[in-house]
What does this fold into?
Amino acid sequence: MQKRYLFAPGPTQVPPEVLLAMASPIIHHRAPDFVELFEQVRADLKWLFQTTNDVLVLASSGTGGMEGSVANFLSPGDKAIVVNMGKFGERWGKICKSFGVIVDEIVVEWGHAVDPQLIAEALQKNPDTKAVFIQASETSTGVANDTHAIADIVRPLSDTILVVDAITALGVFDIRTDEWGVDVVVTGSQKALMLPPGLAFVSVSEKAWKLAESAKNSYFYYNFKKEAEGQRKQQTAFTPAVSMIVGLKEALRMLKEEGLQNIFARHARLANAMREGVAAAGLSIFPKESPSNALTAIQAPEGIDGQKIYARLREPYAITAAGGQDHLKGKIFRISHMGYVDTFDVIMALSAVEMVLKDLGHPVPLGVGVGKAEELLRKPI
It folds into this structure.
C-alpha cells in the first residue's frame, strides 16, 4: 500500500469535511435551497476578499476569471500596463493582446518582484492607461509583489483600474481589497480555498463597473454585468457548479472558524519553516526577494536535474510537487504550503526532498532540514 500526498501549487489538498459536503445529494440551482446556500457563500466570500463589493462566482478555472477581467473592462485599442515577472504575468499580456488591448509590458527578471516605481513611471508616460495588471503571487517563481504599494499608485487615478491575479495569494496573505482600493481581484477554487479546480471568483469595485459601462469587447459567457445582476438575487446567469458551491460553503466555514489573521499567520509560519529547512539542508530558494508564503521554489543543486527531483518525489515516494516552467525547467522545483496544510505537511515535504536528493547522489545529511523545521514549528509547553 502506498499513500499519496499532494504538495503541488494547485490543485491543493481538499479537507475531508469539504469532500463529504460535496458528496451530498445534488440540489437544483433554481430551487429555494440553492438560493439560501448561494446567499451564505456570497456573504462569506466578501469576508475573505475583505470587500463590500460584488464577488462573482464563475464556473471556470482562474484563467476564466482573468479573461473576464480583461474583456469586461477594456476595449480594443485601450492601453494597459502588464507586469510580466513569470509564466502567469505573461498570461495577462497574452489575454490582453487577444482582445486588441495595447500592452505596455514591464518585464521583470524571473525571481524578482516588480519595483512599484516602474509602474508609476509607466503611468506617467501613458496617462491614458485604462488598467494595470499584476500578480499578487507569481506561482511559477514563488515571488510575491507589493500589492499595497502598487494600489497606492493606481488608486488616485480616476480612469485607471488595478487588476490583481491573487490566485495563489488570496487566503494566504493579507490583501485588503477595499482598504487599499484594489479594483478587481481574481482567485480560483483549487488553491487556498481548499477545493478541487472548477470555480473562479472575481471582486469588482465601483470604479471598475464604471469602466465596464464603456467597454466594447465581445463576450458571452464571461458577462460580468449579467452575472452581477443575477447573483445579487442569488442566481447565476448559467448553470453553476452546484456541488462545488456546496463544498465552498464548508471550506469558507472552516476558514471563518480559523479567522483571517490566524490564516495569514499560519501560512507565514509554515513558509518560514520551509525556507529555513531548505537552507539548513544546504539548498537555496529561487526568489531573489519577496518570497511568496503560498509556495517555495527551490533551486536544484548543481549537477542535478530539477525535473528528476520532481519525478522522484512522485515515484517512488508518492509526493506530487511541481517542476519549473519554461527556461526554469530542470533548474527549480516547487512545493506548496497553502490551503489545507499544517506543521507536519512541511516536515513531511522536507523529509521527502532530503531522501530524494540523497537518492540522486547529493550529499545532504538526512534530517538537517527536517530538524530545523521541527525547531521552528514545535509548540513548547
